[in-house]
């Protein structure tokens, strides 16, 4: 898809959204972060609103424009999906809990198990919310070291035992996409599976974050039985399946985590728009938000040409994470002595380390750049 | 970038790298000495070609300054009523340029003391923006010691302008965006060259029996610098695109590019000096030349804080 075609997709998406998005927009004050405190009722209501929005998009062919029409798409390119997300992000829509589902799990399913038509269709229609079960207590950055085991069951299928952690929205999810060990240690001993989050043996325990929010979880898997058709990709291909997901995660780097307008409103409310230091800090936040959008534009163009977002996506991830830190610094400046009081803005000031870890730490991203882009000599053990 | 522009830039690089060529004559022949002007003075071509020329020349410490000042001057002269463009360009004069608060100060212009022309822009946006053109009488003949010897400076005397005219606000905004983008492209070119020096060094230099680029501390530092280079590249590409399309947001994107590039350029130059160890602090090693340039250009550029305050209120 050329830039023009992606632009056309963006224009069509914008026109459709103008008509359809307002009825689904959320009310109330906009949060600084998608990961702020929510009551269980608020969280549930947000998931329900997200399901309705997802179903509405699917019935109009906008759930994922890259899918074939039979699955609720338009048969367009991946770049059209990203163009749609960008257009969608201009409204306040209940998409946040569905991002893992629609932006990471969906392309992985379509790539590795296109025969799972029913699973894909339910996901696309918002009937099932997914979570991604990768990290473990002893395997985060070192993903290939995971120890959760899937053993072939006596008759057929698999029995899974182990522990996962940092699983966003697992407490709300219907299904999980699981990476487990089926063979020897290392990359080649891994396989991917689909798991029912309500199956016997699955226990989800929310983790309270530094901010007080609890958007991610520990997930305990205790002799969970999976049917044979739960396999996602051939046995032993788990690493390759996971890489498909992680490449798609790079496309999910968005500027909406840098809330420039909300921060400027907070500054205005406190009469700080004449304060040189605050304004310089806000200007940097705005510049960084624009740069993240520009980096995204470049990734989008690469994807339009058929290239992988690949390691270049690490630049965007690193810059986004650092920009959230800069936005948090601006929040501290705006708050002044008020920073000592608990508030949504003071929680935003506290929340920036999360993004530096989520989706691959800064250190992992830098190692990817050093190895795969700069082609520096391989790292040695000290 | 069009194939035609890419071919021109390749040819330019060949001229810059060839020993003992007459760079001036070579670039003039390519139409890149006053890139951005139409033939017969410049190569014409796509609107962003002059920005690419600025980036490309900045990659080389030996490029003559008038490839930069010529590009900046050309955009000013394009706003000129009457036959000024023709008259100035036909005589192939070396120009010094200044726009206090954008590039240079009221006491310092960018250009050699023996420049034959000074083109000074003043004011912004409102009705006060204007252009003055001076011949040698407008410049102090005494050379000014420059921190960056590749970027000579001169003092405006402003005697007897040859011409002076007002800029309408739209032309002044467009010119302002161009100069900021050129400043960012200049930083990008220098930054790329400097970063390449750093990469070559950590790949080749050995310590403890291995290339120092195998140590995580240096690998991660290089990754940080790569982020600086690539983010700057994104800002100038998107800013240049918007400027070429005469997009109303171009001024904003030019502020983003300039405020980002000037500081990123300093980070890269400082880090590459340090990556070279003690050698980086010697006069013979190239990194210090990039550091001089990064500091000198930051000093002539608008203050990053001021650019950000403008961004926050825009």
Named CATH topology of the largest domain in chain A: Butyryl-Coa Dehydrogenase, subunit A, domain 1
What's the total helix number of chain A?
12
- The helix/strand order of chain A is HHHHHEEEEEEEEHHHHHHH
**Coarse morphology of chain B:** globular
Strand content of chain B: 5-15%
- Residue windows where pLDDT falls under 50 for at least 5 positions of chain A: none
Strand content of chain A: 5-15%
Succession of helices and strands of chain B: HHHHHEEEEEEHEEHHHH
How would you explain this protein's 3D organization?
The complex is a heterodimer of chains A (382) and B (314). Chain A is of the alpha+beta class. Chain A is built from twelve helices and eight strands. Helices cover 45% and strands 14% of the residues of chain A. In chain A, 46% of the residues are buried. In chain A, the strands form two sheets. Chain A has a four-stranded mixed beta sheet with strand order 1-4-5-8. Chain A has a four-stranded antiparallel beta sheet with strand order 2-3-7-6, with no helix packed on it. Chain A starts with a helix and ends in a 9-residue tail after the last helix. Among the domains of chain B are: 93-167, no CATH class; 172-313, Butyryl-CoA Dehydrogenase, subunit A, domain 3, CATH 1.20.140.10.
In brief:
The complex is a heterodimer of chains A (382) and B (314). With 382 residues, chain A is α+β, with helices and mostly antiparallel strands. Chain A contains twelve helices and eight strands.
List the helices and strands and how they pair.
The complex is a heterodimer of chains A (about 375) and B (about 325).
Chain A: H1 3-20, H2 40-59, H3 78-88, H4 99-112, H5 117-124, E1 130-133, E2 149-152, E3 158-168, E4 175-181, E5 190-196, E6 202-207, E7 216-226, E8 231-232, H6 238-251, H7 260-269, H8 276-304, H9 312-335, H10 344-351, H11 353-357, H12 362-373
Parallel strand pairs in A: 1-4
Antiparallel strand pairs in A: 2-3, 3-7, 4-5, 5-8, 6-7
Helix pairs in contact in A: 1-3, 3-8, 4-6, 7-8, 7-9, 8-9, 9-10, 9-12
Chain B: H1 3-17, H2 23-30, H3 49-58, H4 66-77, H5 84-90, E1 95-98, E2 109-110, E3 117-122, E4 130-134, E5 153-154, E6 161-166, H6 169-204, E7 206-207, E8 210-211, H7 216-244, H8 250-275, H9 287-300, H10 304-313
Parallel strand pairs in B: 1-3
Antiparallel strand pairs in B: 2-5, 3-4, 4-6, 7-8
Helix pairs in contact in B: 1-2, 1-3, 3-6, 4-6, 6-7, 6-8, 6-9, 7-8, 8-9, 8-10
């Amino acid at each position: 898809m050329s830039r023009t075609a992606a632009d056309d997709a963006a224009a069509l998406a914008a026109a459709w959204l103008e008509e359809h998005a307002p009825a689904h927009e959320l009310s109330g004050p906009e949060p600084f972060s998608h990961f702020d405190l929510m009551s269980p009722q608020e969280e549930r209501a947000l998931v329900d609103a997200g399901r309705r929005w997802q179903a509405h998009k699917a019935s109009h062919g906008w759930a994922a424009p890259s899918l074939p029409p039979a699955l609720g798409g338009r048969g367009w390119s991946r770049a059209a999906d990203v163009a749609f997300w960008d257009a969608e992000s201009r409204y306040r829509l209940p998409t946040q809990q569905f991002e893992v589902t629609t932006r990471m799990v969906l392309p992985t399913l379509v790539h590795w198990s296109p025969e799972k038509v029913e699973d894909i269709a339910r996901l696309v229609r918002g009937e099932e919310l997914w979570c991604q079960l990768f990290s473990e207590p002893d395997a985060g950055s070192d993903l290939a070291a995971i120890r959760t085991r899937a053993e072939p069951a006596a008759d057929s299928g698999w029995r899974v035992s182990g522990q996962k952690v940092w699983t966003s929205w697992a407490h709300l999810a219907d299904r999980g996409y699981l990476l487990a060990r089926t063979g020897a240690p290392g990359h080649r001993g891994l396989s991917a599976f689909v798991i029912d989050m309500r199956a016997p043996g699955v226990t989800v325990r929310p983790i309270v974050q530094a901010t007080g929010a609890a958007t991610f979880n520990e997930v305990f898997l205790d002799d969970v039985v999976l049917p044979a058709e739960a396999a996602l990709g051939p046995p032993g291909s788990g690493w390759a399946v996971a890489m498909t997901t992680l490449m798609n995660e790079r496309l999910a780097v968005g500027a909406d985590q840098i809330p420039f307008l909300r921060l400027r409103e907070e500054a205005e409310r406190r009469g700080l728009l004449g304060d040189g230091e605050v304004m310089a800090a806000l200007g940097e936040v705005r510049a960084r938000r624009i740069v993240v959008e520009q980096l995204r534009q470049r990734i989008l163009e690469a994807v339009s040409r058929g290239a992988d977002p690949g390691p270049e996506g690490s630049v965007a991830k690193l810059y986004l994470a650092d920009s959230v830190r800069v936005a948090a610094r601006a929040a501290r400046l705006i708050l002044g002595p008020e920073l000592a009081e608990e508030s949504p803005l003071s929680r935003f000031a506290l929340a920036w380390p999360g993004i530096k870890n989520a989706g691959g730490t800064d250190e992992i991203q830098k190692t990817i750049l050093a190895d795969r882009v700069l082609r520096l000599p391989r790292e040695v053990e000290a | 970038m069009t194939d035609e522009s890419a071919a021109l830039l390749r040819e330019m690089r060949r001229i810059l790298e060839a020993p003992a060529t007459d760079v001036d004559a070579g670039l003039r022949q390519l139409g890149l000495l006053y890139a951005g002007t139409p033939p017969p003075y410049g190569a014409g071509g796509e609107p962003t070609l002059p920005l690419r020329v600025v980036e490309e020349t900045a990659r080389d410490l030996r490029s003559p300054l008038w490839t930069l000042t010529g590009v900046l001057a050309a955009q000013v002269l394009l706003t000129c009523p009457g036959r000024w463009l023709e008259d100035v360009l036909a005589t192939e004069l070396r120009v010094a340029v200044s726009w206090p608060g954008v590039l240079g100060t009221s006491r310092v212009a960018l250009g050699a003391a023996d420049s034959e022309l000074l083109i000074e822009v003043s004011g912004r946006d409102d009705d006060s923006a204007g252009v003055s053109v001076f011949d040698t009488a407008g410049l102090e003949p005494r050379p000014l010691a420059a921190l960056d010897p590749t970027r000579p400076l001169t003092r405006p005397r402003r005697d007897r302008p040859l011409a002076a005219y007002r800029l309408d606000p739209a032309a002044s905004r467009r010119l302002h965006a161009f100069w900021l983008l050129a400043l960012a492209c200049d930083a990008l070119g220098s930054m790329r060259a400097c970063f390449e020096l750093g990469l070559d060094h950590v790949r080749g230099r050995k310590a403890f029996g291995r290339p120092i680029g195998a140590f995580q501390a240096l690998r991660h530092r290089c990754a940080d610098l790569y982020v600086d280079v690539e983010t700057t590249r994104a800002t100038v590409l998107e800013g240049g695109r918007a400027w070429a399309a005469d997009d109303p947001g171009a001024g904003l994107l030019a502020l983003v590019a300039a405020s980002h590039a000037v500081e990123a350029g300093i980070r890269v130059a400082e880090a590459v000096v340090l990556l070279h160890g003690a050698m980086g602090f010697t006069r013979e090693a190239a990194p210090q030349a990039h550091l001089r340039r990064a500091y000198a250009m930051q000093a002539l550029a608008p203050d990053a804080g001021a650019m950000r305050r403008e961004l926050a209120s825009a």
